[in-house]
Design brief:
Length: about 575
């Protein structure tokens, strides 16, 4: 406690003067008695309760004295101190990754524990602005220099886990743009963060890390893969025990209909084991699960779809190397195949070639670039395209083509140069570019890899599987001419809709999902990033900047509002006492 205006202590003379006056005033009380008959009764009543009688006669005096003392106290402006956050501004960096779902104390998640801490700190801001940043692939600012406490509490209560990888280094770099050479206190709410990861070059910044400080147990399915063989499906499961004690769990592998594998597994402490299971029945997808109630449940399940092989691209070795480079720039698995072996491929995937004869030997989706059974002719003009998903992200109007091959009868033309077809599609969905790479400057344009990406998506469209995504992954998908697609969970719960041409954003929570449009159904799966399957115990600590003023560690709360409320109450009581006694003129 303390006093702000000690100079007003001289006003205490006023109540002291009134008190002295009271001591020197006449002590007797005038009392009229109509008859001595009642004198003794009146004296008995007075002697029986002298203090009560005194209080009744002097109620106004005591009320006025108390009011004067409160006025003097209000002039002195007393206050009490509470702990406050140092600095001119406060920054919260909140980890919203999947690992924040870990049960910190067997009752609430670490994320909820951090939320309670944030709400406590909001009460200690002392009017300082708050900036709230969440982590992820793209750090987001939810509050920017916010001064309204109610708005702060509202946004903190709305925080949710995004399941994305935390990318803490990106979030820290992003947060530094808000420092502006001001004394700043940064609070980082995460599970684990090493001290050397902090940008400690800012002398006016104080770093406060709130981490996971309790011991946890965690066993996870680190990796799960499956491949089709001549005798069925072969699977490989990698299990990791991150705890300091042995764990016994039941591993199950099931498909959409039944359980295929059930095996009790012992996991030694701090070790990883690999298990394989062969000759499983053919399925559209497989799900691996470990039955264990550990501190982190999200990594106890993993799903793999068997259509993943369509992501492979096999390129005829006679095709120009720039085509391979374009596919590789899109992070697509690319393999070069000798021309004479293209028609002999047994693996599932997309073929890129100029050999028309192979279509009778293989039914794989194919991109033809040029023709080996015809001769080209010179053309001159601007490339014009039709409304096709293949051109959703690739504008071909600026490319130059010197020659084209004759078109294929029965194929649909989707791009022309003057009157000559340039790109066609077959009734079965194959694509043909009627020019060799050497006949055009297209590879020099940024639209070339974008078109190749659209080709890959188009040729995979025959599959009912879109692919495997990480939480909230943003990716443009060529979904055809359908106006709208809707995403549902496997339990048929609606998530959200995607307008045609809109960027695809994967759901946030891991699991299986269905993409629907009229009668078309496509599956997709959301899996945790590999780094979100590891839980480490951290340490909470503080690193104080050299220029942070320690005197800002407390905030003062004034007693004056409470004193004024008491004064108003006293004035009301005095008025009532005076009214009952009667007002004199």
């Amino acid at each position: 406690m303390g006093i702000n205006q000690l100079i007003y202590s001289w006003t205490a003379i006023l109540p002291i003067a009134v008190l002295l006056y009271y001591f020197f005033r006449k002590k007797y009380v005038k009392k009229s008695v109509s008859s001595t008959l009642f004198w003794q009764e009146a004296m008995k009543e007075t002697k029986a309760s002298p203090y009560l009688q005194h209080l009744q006669r002097n109620a106004l005096f005591y009320l006025q004295m108390l009011a004067m003392l409160l006025l003097v106290l209000a002039l002195l402006q007393p206050y009490w101190k509470t702990k406050a956050i140092a600095g001119e501004q406060i920054v919260f960096i909140v980890d919203t990754s999947a690992t924040m779902k870990v049960n910190a104390n067997n009752s609430i998640s670490l994320f909820e524990q951090h939320r309670e801490k944030m709400l406590e700190l909001v009460e200690q801001l002392a009017g300082k602005p708050l900036t709230l940043i969440t982590t992820g692939n793209e750090p987001a600012v939810l509050l920017r220099q916010e001064m309204n406490t109610e708005q702060m509490i509202k946004e903190i209560k709305k925080l949710e886990i995004s399941y994305e990888a935390e990318n803490m280094s990106k979030s820290l770099d992003f947060a530094q743009s808000f420092f502006q050479n001001k004394a700043t206190s940064v609070y980082i709410f995460t599970d684990e963060l090493e001290r050397q990861s902090l940008p400690l070059q800012h002398e006016n910044v104080s770093w406060n890390v709130e981490a996971l400080t309790t011991n946890i147990t965690n066993a996870s399915i680190k990796r799960f893969g499956a491949t089709e063989t001549a005798n069925g499906i072969s699977t490989l499961v990698q299990l990791e025990n991150q705890s300091n004690k042995e764990v016994v769990t039941e591993l199950t592998i099931s498909n959409e209909e039944k359980k295929l594998v059930s095996e009790v597994v012992k996991l030694p402490p701090k070790e990883t084991i690999t298990l394989s299971f062969d000759d499983l029945v053919n399925s559209s997808y497989l799900k691996a699960n470990i039955d264990i109630q550990d501190s982190y449940l999200l990594d106890n399940e993993n799903i793999v779809f068997m259509q993943d092989q369509l992501s492979n691209v096999f390129i005829d070795s006679s095709i120009h190397s720039l085509v391979r480079t374009a596919f590789q720039s899109l992070d697509i698995n690319v393999s070069s195949v000798p021309s004479e072996q293209v028609g002999l491929l047994k693996e599932e995937g997309i073929i890129v070639t100029n050999q028309f004869g192979i279509k009778g030997e293989t039914q794989k989706p194919t991109l033809y670039i040029g023709r080996n059974d015809a001769f080209p002719k010179e053309v001159n003009g601007i490339v014009q395209t039709t409304e096709s998903p293949l051109f959703a992200f690739a504008n071909l109007s600026d490319i130059y083509v010197s020659s084209v091959y004759p078109p294929i009868d029965g194929y649909t033309t989707i791009a022309t140069i003057g009157e000559d077809p340039f790109i066609q599609t077959s009734p079965t969905g194959d694509i043909i570019i009627l020019a060799d790479i050497q006949m055009t400057d297209w590879p020099l344009s940024p639209t070339f890899p974008l078109f190749m990406w659209s080709v890959k998506e188009h040729l995979s469209a025959g599959s009912d599987y879109l692919g495997t995504f990480t939480p909230n992954e943003r990716k443009p998908l060529s979904l055809g001419a359908t106006a709208e697609w809707e995403i549902y969970t496997m339990d048929d719960e609606y998530e959200y809709a995607i307008e045609n041409g809109g960027k695809f954003v994967a759901p946030s929570e891991p699991g299986l999902y269905v993409l629907r449009s009229n009668d078309i159904v496509k599956n997709l799966s959301i899996i945790l990033p590999q780094e979100e399957k590891v839980i480490d115990k951290g340490t909470s600590y503080k690193v104080t900047g050299q220029q942070i003023n320690a005197s800002d560690d407390h905030q003062a709360h004034s007693f004056v509002p409470y004193i004024l409320f008491l004064l108003v109450l006293l004035f009301v009581i005095e008025w009532e006492v005076q009214r009952r006694r009667g007002f004199t003129s």
